[in-house]
């Protein structure tokens, strides 16, 4: 009697193939997650750049206040952390008939900035100060502390939850 051997896979070969497939699927999932985090960070960084540019333009459009020294300038020393679930209280309306003086316009600008930080950045924070060296070389990140040198440029620092310990974006406004 002649015996026929049928070619096929053993159970061990099937289990090894399933293991290799599972590792591949897990790796693809991890790569997708990393790509999603990178995309979100890039989107928030872009929003931070737009917000900083908007605030810088508002400051430059209000020269009678933005040229005041740090103690009298409402822009310099502005520090807001959006920790709560509630948005900031209503500010001074400067639209249409509700015109504002220069100080009122600065208050309006800062209120609009608070609303933007609260609404766009998870656990967001913004600080405006004079800082000649916002980069911490040892820690390889931006720092929240400011040098407050009166001759340093104005720095707009924006950070959010998940952007390490320091701000994720710093814009320098030459003055």
Give me the strand/helix succession.
Answer: HHEHEEEEE
Instruction: Quote the beta fraction.
Output: 5-15%
Low-pLDDT windows of residues: none
Radius of gyration: 27 Å
Number of helices: 3
Largest sheet: 4 strands, antiparallel
Kindly report the average pLDDT value.
85
Helix content: 40-55%
Distance between the termini: 99 Å
Concise account of the structure shown:
With 175 residues, the chain is an alpha+beta fold. It has helices spanning 11-60, 63-66, 102-120, and strands at residues 79-81, 125-130, 135-136, 141-142, 154-159, 169-173. The protein has a 4-stranded antiparallel β-sheet, covered by helices on one side. Strands 3-4 form a two-stranded antiparallel ribbon.
Give the topology, please.
Layout (H helix, E strand, L loop, with lengths): L10 H50 L2 H4 L12 E3 L20 H19 L4 E6 L4 E2 L4 E2 L11 E6 L9 E5 L2
Structure report:
- With 175 residues, the protein is an alpha+beta fold.
- Helix content is 42%, strand content 14%.
- It has helices at residues 11-60, 63-66, 102-120; strands at residues 79-81, 125-130, 135-136, 141-142, 154-159, 169-173.
- The protein has a 4-stranded antiparallel beta sheet with strand order 1-2-5-6, with helices on one face. A two-stranded antiparallel ribbon has the order 3-4.
- Strand 3 (135-136) and strand 4 (141-142) form a beta hairpin.
- Helix 1 packs antiparallel against helix 3.
- The longest helix is centred in the N-terminal third of the chain and has 50 residues, at 11-60.
- The mean pLDDT is 85.
